[in-house]
Specification:
- With 197 residues, the chain is mostly beta strands.
- 6% of the residues lie in helices and 32% in strands.
- The longest helix has 6 residues.
Length: 197
Amino acid sequence: NFATLNPLYHYIGGATLSEGNLKFTTSGNSSNGRAISTIRPESGKWYVECKIIDVTRFQIGIMNGNETNSAQGGSDTNSVVLGYNGDFYFNSSQYTNYIADLSNNDIVQLALDLDNDLFWFGANDTWGNSATRTEIENGTATNSGSTDIGSQVPVNTGAIGIFLEDNSGTGNNVAEINFGSPPFSISSGNTDGNGYG
């Protein structure tokens, strides 16, 4: 099985899901909300890609099993959010210039190493903080997002969710997320050992 976004999540708000619950949309000044993955792993290594359709209020994040305490990811220690400006938000602090500003049609990458409580974000095959694929595969913490924010809390407790969010209500966030479902390959040509992805 492959994850989708959960349409029953309590912070879905005014966001709508389509394309088999793999496309997330908020529009204009009238809607905001969050959609989180239906499968939430507790261990292992995971990789997800997301194609940005409308970057205006784009945000992608990860959240531990305790969950963040509001509709705004990055507002406490339970979640971290990467925004359209390439900055991280964690515990109500902003960590600037992790990656370059994002644009429409960019492919955002997320890698999780839940055995070592590490995460990485990137875009268009370039990882943030100059991390390398070898570092990610080896679980090297040096250039991970966990090191950048100085905390492993968003990925070290319970079932880890991956989410798309618009917490502003002042613009659009339209994105397609690829958890590896074989009929839905919108980004790279990468596949797993069984040819899926």
